[in-house]
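tool_log.txt
---
The assistant was asked to compare two proteins side by side. It first ran the structure predictor on the initial sequence, then on the second. Raw inputs and outputs are pasted verbatim so the downstream comparison step can read them without reformatting.
(1)
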Amino acid sequence: MLKSPAFSAAIVAGGVVIACNILYVFGLYFVMTSPKYNIYSRVTIISMAVVCVLNVIVLALLIILRKYYERRALNSIIVPLQQIEAHIEKLVEGEYDLPIRHISNDEIGDLFQAVEDVRIKLKDYHAQELKNVALKRVHISGLMHDIATPVTRINGFASLVADGIVTDVEEIKRFASMVLQSTEDINIMLKSIAAAEQYNKTETATKRQPVDLGEVLEKYIFDLSLELSLQDVSISFDNCCKNAAVCSVDIKHCKRVLHNLINNSIKYKKPDERCKILIKLEDYPDGRILCSVSDNGIGVEPGTEEMLFEMFYRGDGARRNINEGNGLGLFLCKQILLANDAEISAENKDNGLTINILFHRSDEIPVRWYK
């Protein structure tokens, strides 16, 4: 049983009252047995008797007060703690939907609020886990579907040769070439799974430093422009920022993001049309810096922009050609940018796709990042 200071005070006061009553009783005895017992002694006896009665009343009030505080402590401390214990047991059992409420501004109320905050976080985490499990099932189903196609081709080619239906050497070579291509398709999908597993074991963006994004992009695009021109790809850069676009980022990983985005623009360009890529840097209204990568490609289906950044997600067009990607590129881009305190989103337009990246502006002095 928890004890408050009132309990201790009641016990001490009760002890004092009992001691006084004992002294009064002894005093009455000596007065009444005294040879000098007189009228004044009677007054003394009556006064002492009244004091004894008052002490008994005070003692009774102290006992009642102690019982009151015990009951109050039971209702304000013990019962709420029992409620918290029962609620924590439900959380351990996986019941996250039942809220816990306690209207008070004391420490008990703070404890209830802390448990409620934990419940909300556990509920959100559980919901995210369920979503991830469902997403993994979809991904596994898609991979099984993708793998089934080359496996079926391999089985069919092998059966034709084994059954003696195909005997011509040239035909057998052609089928062998198809089998090799199918096995390569399977290897690509297995590598994508291995890449995802490897990503979970590595850290990203551990060497952030303040740099001028304008300088980084300008040099990166200049170094890349000659290579892209040989692939019939034009790339341009437009820096619309009024001041230096200084951000604290990991340059190595951010270049990896840009490389991935540019490759996607090239990979999903329109047939028989030159790929055009525009990288633009501008001030965002809330003070951040917006970096956009736009192309004139085939874009994506409306409503699937957010899904582009999910692990293993590939649009219908990409799924028809296994070599077009493994569904990890944009997912890794998002994880890298999150580690750099940046946000990424996609915007589908009539004439292509635009990837928007929001960086937080830094007040630090940019470092020299290249020799």
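(2)
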Amino acid sequence: MNCEYFGKCGSCTLGKMSYEEQLDFKIKREKERFGDIFDKTIDVIKSKDGAFRNRAEFRVFHKMGKISYAMSDINKKLLPIQNCSIVSDYISELMPKLLDEVSKNEILAKRFFSVEFLSSTTGDILVTMIYHKKLDDVWSEEAKKLQAKLNIKIIGRSRGQRVILSDDFINEKLYICVPTQESRNEFLVQYKEGGFTQPNQKVNIQMIEWVLNNIEAKDDLCELYCGGGNFTLPLSQKFDKVLATEISKTSIRSAKLNCELNDIKNIKFIRMSSEEFVEARNGVREFRRLQQEDVKLEDYNFSTIFVDPPRAGLDDTTTNLAKDFEQIIYISCNPETLHRDLIELTKTHTIKNFALFDQFAFSGHIECGVVLSVK
């Protein structure tokens, strides 16, 4: 991938390297990091070399009556840009068209501060336009015209305002190879504005398939930090029952909707933090949320726990909970906290499989996947 902003833009910090060079750099770094606890083969899931991000955010730069997109440069100052080589083809094609139309419309251009793009692999696109002004009916009428002309969905945001012109979600289809002939391989999902979505859909699908192909599935699954059900839906095909928890109300609503869209009956989604789930499982507290969803923890025969925590990793309570399960699946967006947690988890469990997922090509970030079994 070539990009005129490599070495300037603060997003692609490894942009001066070729794709293979930046990937080799990250592989070597993580092998050194985890060498004290895992010295076997690490699986590597590659990204596309460019046009891989299905989610992107940009500042809007105004100067002398003209506007452009902008990113933070390597010195954390604004860098005006005209294009971005890492965004999906759908977003890349839309970016200049959107800016051209907005530039010609004083109502849409005035105090336009930043923009967020969310695209599916089938071209469904949601654009969130963020302003430093109150959005009135005049703005809505002009934005509706823009929405119709570009065949996109638009949301307007300002302080205390969220203006939805049509939908606040995109529709996506995930084609997953589930390793059983009788299982489905197409999953319909809705990604909501403001909810978490994996930015690199090609790698996301391979992450899911890697998990499915490297676990021993039996009995029931407990999942913490389930988000909108990205892993939950395919994993439900491999277990008898699934109980999944998430603290975000937006994500739980999405997860339940996605479950309905796929007519999956063996999943229960509960809005709970990991600490609250531990309290419920240990009988420390009773939770009305469990009763409302008709969930009785004693009805579950858990063999496996799946965790996909934020960058801070697992707290001590959740780490101790995970030790009670025969099998642990751990997806991490922060190798540093993953290493810390694995030091503790490998006291009771053995690492069976380890993978690196290059979700964020040309940056220093990389995701990891680990499957552990009880000793």
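---
observation on (2): The chain has eleven helices and 17 strands. The chain has a mean pLDDT of 95.
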